[in-house]
Specification:
Blueprint: H1 2-23, E1 50-54, H2 60-76, E2 80-84, H3 88-95, E3 104-106, E4 121-125, E5 131-136, H4 141-154
Parallel strand pairs: 1-2, 2-3
Antiparallel strand pairs: 1-4, 4-5
């Protein structure tokens, strides 16, 4: 029984490491079919950095970190894209929690089916759509300053 538990823990640990270090960094966001509320597909900027953040209305971390991400976006003039697979009615309620207009976008692809299992999952891009950093769960000012360091190092 101890061997079984050890092997199970080992397999789960290896699976998490593979997910975090192999799957997520090479995740292709362009295949998600991200569009605005009117159904127009968006194109990410190639000439400037941006943040792409997958969120859910039920996620407490998403709710608590949205103001931090919006403040960072506005202070540093870095666009942010909040993306969800939930319907527009739920997102209207989510948006109503905040005193500013949130840039929320939608995907018809179920996030779970594509491997986005933890929320928020954020991808931090530099110029030329170069992925500089990614973070799953708990995005705070430390993570955002780490992103700024990577941006400055690439300039």
């Amino acid at each position: 029984m101890k061997k079984f538990i050890f092997l199970l823990a080992l397999l789960l640990g290896l699976g998490y490491i593979g997910y975090y270090f192999y799957y997520i960094p090479y995740f292709d966001n362009n295949q998600m079919g991200i569009s605005n509320a009117e159904g127009q597909r968006i194109k990410f900027p190639k000439d400037r950095p941006y943040i792409l953040c997958y969120i859910q209305t039920w996620c407490k971390d998403c709710i608590s970190e949205t103001p931090c991400l919006m403040d960072f976006s506005q202070k540093n003039n870095i666009p942010i894209y909040f993306v969800t697979d939930e319907d527009t009615i739920l997102m209207k309620k989510y948006r109503a929690r905040f005193p500013y207009e949130l840039p929320i976008y939608y995907t018809q692809t179920r996030l779970k089916e594509k491997g986005i299992l933890l929320f928020p999952t954020a991808f931090f891009y530099g110029e030329g759509n170069k992925l500089l950093y990614h973070k799953m769960e708990r995005i705070d000012s430390v993570e955002l300053s780490h992103y700024l360091e990577k941006l400055n190092a690439n300039n």
